[in-house]
Amino acid sequence: MSTGLPKRFDPRRLAAQDGGSGGTLAGEIETTLMPRLREALAGEEPATASFSLRAFRDEAERLVIEGRVNATLACKCQR
């Protein structure tokens, strides 16, 4: 598991991992690195979001990238 999201990665190489069944890139990223999200947060306390990206090939050999992000955040009311 990595600790942060790399600026670049090769999805084809990730999909070829584990004998072609695909690979996962996962870790945590600080909300300070996400300025648009940061604007919506209540308070100045930094938070982290966990992420995972999975690259694999489907039955038709198309490259597929699945992504998930998980975070608990206090946001400002947008009313």
What does this entry look like structurally?
- A 3-stranded antiparallel β-sheet has the order 1-2-3.
- The protein contains 2 helices and 3 strands.
- By secondary structure, the protein is of the alpha+beta class.
Concise structural overview:
This protein has 79 residues and is an alpha+beta fold. Helices cover 14% and strands 33% of the residues. It has a three-stranded antiparallel beta sheet with strand order 1-2-3.
Quick tags:
elongated, 79 residues, alpha+beta, three-stranded antiparallel β-sheet
Mind sketching the topology for me?
Elements: H1 11-15, E1 23-30, H2 35-40, E2 48-57, E3 63-70
Antiparallel strand pairs: 1-2, 2-3
What class do helices, strands and sheet pairing give?
alpha+beta
Q: How is the biggest beta sheet arranged?
A: 3 strands, antiparallel
What's the helix count?
2
How far do the termini sit from each other?
39 Å
Number of strands: 3
Count of folded domains: 1
Silhouette: elongated
Strand order of the largest sheet: 1-2-3
